[in-house]
Design a protein that fits this description.
By secondary structure, the chain is mainly alpha-helical. The chain has a single domain (2-95), classed as DNA polymerase, domain 1 (Orthogonal Bundle). It has helices at 2-9, 15-25, 29-36, 45-60, 78-82; strands at residues 86-89, 92-95. The chain has a two-stranded antiparallel ribbon with strand order 1-2. Strand 1 (86-89) and strand 2 form a beta hairpin. Helix 2 crosses helix 4. It starts with a helix and ends with a strand.
């Protein structure tokens, strides 16, 4: 997941973006996993943006085993059924 993101999405990253990635990857694995899975949000704005961009990138690439859709506890909404969901990130917007 991270290797593809780094290769594709950060190919032309600024030094600040690369620094944020280094900072994110230096976090303990349980904390990093929580951020990447969306269970928690980093308090640092640059890390929160990066974690969101990684989640968006993975979703736009068709997901992974970690990001596979879970069975909803409630019936799906009209937007979920019609796939009228747009994800926004620093890399643009994508309809899911």
């Amino acid at each position: 997941m991270l290797e593809c993101f780094v290769r594709d999405a950060l190919a032309h990253a600024s030094p600040q973006e690369r620094g944020a990635l280094e900072e994110l990857l230096a976090l303990p694995d349980p904390l990093l996993a929580g951020y990447l899975l969306g269970e928690n949000t980093p308090p640092e704005p640059q890390l929160a943006r990066l974690a969101g961009a990684i989640r968006t990138y993975v979703a736009m690439q068709g997901g992974s085993a970690l990001f596979s859709p879970q069975q909803p506890a409630l019936p799906p909404t009209h937007a979920e059924l019609s796939r009228e969901l747009t994800v926004y990130s620093t890399h643009g917007a994508a309809a899911l």
